[in-house]
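Chapter review: from sequence to fold.
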Amino acid sequence: YMHSGYPIMIHSTSVPELLNPKGARTQGIWGITHELGHNQQCSPWEFPPHTTECTCNLWSVYVHEEVLGVNRAKAHPDMTPEKRKSRTEDYAKGGRNLDTWRIWTALETYMQ
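The token string follows.
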């Protein structure tokens, strides 16, 4: 879908979304902000392999809420309060296994 780095690479089908500021300010643009977030990651924050796809989403949340004015729950369906609560509870009930502490579950740790 997309690739972070220098240069950032995206499929041509994603270009209209990137060039639509109204859509970005109403619906969000999680995909590209996620990829740009990879460029913001710093090794002291990381706990590979568990956080590679997690901490880049800190950038996604920040950009959506502080720059675009889009609530995180609207920007990505996995960021709704219900899903966040359910995910956290399931992780705790499941024994808090490090093998399942990835992407969205790990993001909850950083979001606190």
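Two observations follow directly from the output. Helices lie at 15-18, 21-26, 30-38, 56-68, 72-75, 81-93, 103-111. The two ends are 29 Å apart (CA to CA).
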